[in-house]
Amino acid sequence: MSSLLREAERCIANQNSYTALNALISTLHSSGQWLDRIKEADTRRAQGRPESRLDGRLVVIKDNICTRELPTTCASRALDKFTSPFNATVVQQLEDAGAVVSGKANLDEFGMGSHSVNSHFGPVKNMYRSRNAEDLSAGGSSGGSAVAVATEQCYTALGTDTGGSVRLPAAYTGIVGFKPSYGLISRWGVVAYANSLDTVGIFGREVSSVRDVFDILNQHDPRDPTNLSPDTRSRIGDQFTSPPLASRMTTNPLKIGVPLEYNISELAPSVRRAWSRSLNHMLQQGHSIHPVSLPTTQLALSAYYVLAPAEASSNLAKYDGVRYGNSFGGDHYDPQMNSYLYARTRGEGLGSEVKRRILLGAFSLSAGAIDNYFIQAQRIRRLVQRDFNATFLANHPLMPRRLNGDDVNYKSSQAQVDIMICPTAPSSPPALSSLVGEGANRSPLDAYMNDVFTVPASLAGLPAASVPVTDESTDSLAGVQIIGQYGDDALVLKVAEMLSNKRL
Ligand code: GLN
């Protein structure tokens, strides 16, 4: 049996044996189609002309990304009977590269959540358990994709990261999660949560598999108006890849920034240890460490939870049971009372967290509140971007260099750095019983708090990765986050490679 076929059979066996983790909503393996595709890939490999390094490998797609062969539910009752007539661009790109989409992953409904518990299909369980055998959160909202990768139900998986939904589950499940710069990967066919923040992210057990996928997806797509044009891409390429990264790093050791605002008192000791050991490791490799300040970080979380729900409330308005989504109007439908249909469809179709976001968003966009909430949050977003620009050595390639005839200087007087290293999440995964069910004692606000370290990079559109680092002395695992300047995705992945899966 070929190694590809063996790998695929192992993945399918794992999909069958890990069903209790609830990582996948639907799978292709029951149809047996995957087998033919892998045999074709095998033939291509034998002839020395594989489509790519993903040719013949099983991938899993978060269930808010459209696939033609499997339903796309967004883990919502409003959509649970829906199959897209087309593939999202990212899915098509993977299939063109020979990858076989073998399942759709469970998530927080429409991507809203931090623990993958807000799902119409029930919560995702982490494969790790606590010392007293309690089930743990897999992180969210792409928890199903993360667990599928961590338990080898697939080679790699796609998630979406609006405010941390790829990085947080990666940290909780001990794998690599990468959110590229905003606008590099197509969002066409990705169900929108908050357009100005949404990115497609990639999970892998190794950085190399994440890079394989990124190389395939990092292309212009004219169907996504926020996707960077070929011109802009080559400008960014000129800035960051000449001279090539490897020579840049051998002649110039990296300057690594340690954002002081991330050193909060609530940081779990295991996370703090993983962070400081990672920094030590980089120091031993000859790189230098510099404290930096990102003062607006403290406001970023509040700004995010105004902006993301505002965009969500407008995006989700279309699920009215007429043009989009399931209708729960049933026999009660009365054309004279169209609003009744609307209220009932949304009341029954959408889960409580989604409704909370819609209410929050509609409020912050309302005439009386927009100045104090939405507009203020946009201002904070600009300040967060400014903080990062003041701190990175490289200029933001999309920011104007000259304004009204004058040069613009974004730099501050503090040390400037190539890259930043900080924690992904403040703590290790909480027990599921504290999040759902009768014993649940955590408020929605507690879940929002988990995103405190991931949302700043999202607001600024920056590339960021979470990698698993094990503290050798206690054997505890934590996610360490690497954040780079806009467009410097290759450097983020390079540093991720230097730290990922290390025992330090
Ligand atoms: N937890 C964040 C939220 O609920 C992030 C979600 C995401 O990145 N999709 O909005």
TrEMBL record:
GO terms for molecular function: ATP binding; glutaminyl-tRNA synthase (glutamine-hydrolyzing) activity; transferase activity. Keywords: ATP-binding, Ligase, Mitochondrion, Nucleotide-binding, Protein biosynthesis, Transferase. Residues 221-244 are annotated as: Disordered. Gene3D superfamilies: Amidase signature (AS) domain. Residues 32-493 form the Amidase domain. GO terms for biological process: glutaminyl-tRNAGln biosynthesis via transamidation; mitochondrial translation. It catalyses: L-glutamyl-tRNA(Gln) + L-glutamine + ATP + H2O = L-glutaminyl-tRNA(Gln) + L-glutamate + ADP + phosphate + H(+). The active site is at 62 (charge relay system), 141 (charge relay system), 165 (acyl-ester intermediate). This is Glutamyl-tRNA(Gln) amidotransferase subunit A, mitochondrial. It comes from Aspergillus indologenus CBS 114.80.
